[in-house]
Design goal:
By secondary structure, the protein is α/β, with parallel strands linked by helices. The protein contains eight helices and nine strands. It has one domain: HAD superfamily/HAD-like (Rossmann fold). The chain has a seven-stranded mixed beta sheet with strand order 1-2-7-6-3-8-9, sandwiched between helices.
Length: about 240
């Protein structure tokens, strides 16, 4: 991705392959509207109703290698065997994720999870939001070091306007709003990214058994190397030195 294309993402002018109805002013407002609240240095933070993040109190320095992952059916699956988790603790790792993340962090990768969470209402009194943040807090307990997390969320159906719908769409994979927000939150530019070493892993790859190709298109829109979980996790030889 060129410097100009990164600049267009940050100003809300980037157009992904999924056609959406939006304006550059909406995107710019979504990514840069100031807030009067004091934001946490590390912990949970919402960018409006359309984006939830677990923020790390860290400054990323060039070259930044990004190891990006989807969450559900990529890093975790349900303990119960249900398609969707039944509460905050109905999850288990699909692979030896803690070991792999530790290895990536030792190789100076910045790990970022990008997750579509269409069922989560991003509001202070939201039950679905509490379930999600409790689940991620539990997952983080099993990791040696914390990781960055972004989720595309939504407003209550009773409250949302067309503006909210546009932001919701912009921040859902395969569109690149979450990645743009990540760049802004950590003050990153194209020149600071080691794009040749960066990659994205997700299960929605457009295969006959997949529900969509949103993860594959997300990676394509960002010009990142893409792997399915089955390709990436057994060896890690695609992106790391050593034997995995």
């Amino acid at each position: 991705m060129t410097g100009n294309s990164i600049a267009s993402i940050l100003t809300g002018q980037h157009k992904s392959k999924a056609k959406i109805s939006k304006t550059s002013s909406q995107t710019s407002q979504a990514l840069s509207t100031p807030t009067l609240k004091r934001e946490p240095k590390q912990g949970w933070r919402s960018h409006g109703s359309h984006c939830l993040t677990y923020t790390l109190d860290t400054k990323l320095t060039a070259p930044v290698k990004v190891a990006a992952f989807d969450l559900d059916d990529t890093l975790i699956t349900t303990k119960s065997g249900s398609k969707f988790g039944r509460g905050s603790f109905d999850w288990k790792f699909k692979f030896d994720v803690p070991r792999i993340f530790t290895k990536l962090q030792a190789e100076n990768y910045t790990i970022v999870i990008f997750s579509n969470q269409a069922a989560v209402v991003n509001a202070p009194d939201s039950k679905s939001l509490k379930i999600l943040t409790t689940k991620l807090d539990d997952i983080f307990k099993h990791l040696e070091k914390p990781v960055i997390y972004y989720a595309s969320t939504r407003k209550s159906r009773k409250e949302k306007s067309q503006h909210d719908v546009n932001l919701y769409t912009l921040f859902r994979k395969p569109n690149t709003g979450m990645f743009s927000q990540f760049l802004q939150d950590y003050q990153l530019t194209e020149e600071m990214l080691d794009r040749n070493s960066s990659f994205f892993v997700g299960d929605a790859a457009g295969r006959p058994v997949d529900f969509s190709d949103s993860d594959l298109k997300f990676a394509e829109n960002l010009k990142l190397k893409f792997f399915t979980p089955e390709e990436y996790f057994p060896s890690m030889k695609h992106v790391t030195n050593g034997d995995g």
